[in-house]
Specification:
Blueprint: E1 5-8, E2 17-20, E3 26-31, E4 36-39, H1 45-52, E5 61-63, H2 70-76, H3 91-99, H4 104-125, E6 133-139, E7 145-152, E8 155-163, E9 168-171, E10 176-178, H5 186-233, H6 266-271, E11 279-286, E12 290-293, E13 300-303, H7 308-313, H8 321-331, H9 334-337
Parallel strand pairs: 4-5, 8-11, 9-12, 11-13
Antiparallel strand pairs: 1-2, 2-3, 3-4, 6-7, 7-8, 9-10
Length: 338
């Protein structure tokens, strides 16, 4: 038991805790969010529980590693260069500050934008404890980028960050005015980005569904050919997979409802929508002394870092956990957007 050691991984307080041997091989891990201990070596079960006891919260379940879902398999098969999950808030601005223009005024604005994105990103990352999945700096075709993409129980939000600079911010239908600076068309940008994000996710989900349909059709064709050859050769045909040896039908296997978003909502299938929830545009106003929103702004969500978590938590639930994971698996792939 004294040879085992606990190694943290991921974000502090939210990542996994791995139990490893002296040579570095993992024998178990503790998932904080699921409150579950996955043991790889049964002979080490008691020692694993003992070494993890100071870190456990409540009655944690213990057992072999769970079978990965389709969304988890998609994430494991994703090339590292195409994975957007490791992106930090303001990832593109960091490169511009290092290798961009040398103008003092332009660099000052970049630093303000970077500070606002980092502050908003830290507040959004805290939502992961409540079942949300967050992506930062998502590329769009051309040179555009989505500052933050939030996928959670309340839906999908495409967020544009607005630096408040400790001044009054007035949000209207078309423009955002911060202090005495020239108003910016951030609301229009947020609406366009949300529409493009919904088209990209819908296109990828549709392509995945078509690919699965073609694969199933090819498998059926191969199975039909094999049956025809066995009939010509006089060999006995295989028993249908849906019947037992006594001739009674077997119960249908549970359908994998995490493969693509179009398969996880009956309501979406009835209405013909591919995505289970629409993408909503949002503005994150960071470090403003006061935020005023025009009463005519109804299709945008205006968030502030300090109150984003309770505001989003109070919205009605439209996505189930398996839908959130399926959408996150699509969105974290850069090929979905480009």
């Amino acid at each position: 038991m004294g040879q085992l050691k606990v190694v943290p991984s991921g974000r502090p307080g939210r990542g996994r805790l791995y139990v490893t041997l002296p040579d570095g091989r993992a024998v178990a891990w503790y998932d904080r969010r699921a409150n579950r201990i996955s043991v790889l070596a049964d002979d080490q079960r008691d020692a694993v529980v003992e070494v993890l006891r100071p870190f456990l919260t409540g009655g944690a379940s213990i057992g072999p590693p769970p079978v990965p879902t389709a969304a988890e398999l998609r994430g494991l098969a994703l090339p590292p260069d195409a994975d957007l999950a490791p992106n930090r808030p303001g990832e593109s601005l960091l490169g511009e500050l290092d290798h961009g223009t040398a103008g003092t005024r332009a660099r000052h604005r970049l630093r303000q934008d970077l500070a606002a994105q980092q502050r908003s990103g830290d507040a959004f990352d805290a939502l992961e404890a409540y079942g949300w999945r967050i992506l930062h700096c998502v590329p769009l075709p051309g040179l555009g980028r989505i500052d933050h993409l939030l996928i959670g129980p309340a839906g999908i939000f495409c967020v544009r960050t607005v630096p408040g600079r400790r001044q009054r911010a007035a949000v209207g239908d078309l423009l955002v005015a911060v202090g005495r600076a020239e108003p910016r068309p951030d609301p229009c940008w947020a609406r366009r980005a949300a529409a493009r994000a919904e088209r990209a996710l819908t296109s990828r989900a549709t392509a995945d569904r078509a690919g699965r349909t073609e694969k199933a059709r090819a498998e059926r064709a191969l199975s039909g050919r094999a049956t025809a050859h066995r009939t010509q050769d006089g060999l006995p045909l295989p028993r249908p997979a849906g019947h037992r040896t006594d001739g009674l039908p077997l119960p249908r296997p549970a359908r994998d409802r995490t493969a693509v978003p179009s398969d996880v909502r009956a309501a979406g299938a009835r209405t013909g929508r591919v995505l289970p929830a629409r993408v909503t545009g949002a503005l994150a106003v960071a470090d403003a002394s006061r935020v005023e929103v025009a009463p005519t702004v109804r299709d945008l969500r205006v968030l502030q870092p300090g109150t984003a978590a309770p505001e989003l938590g109070s919205l009605p639930v439209v996505l189930q956990p398996q839908e959130v994971e399926a959408l996150f698996a699509l969105a974290r792939d850069s090929r979905t957007w480009l």
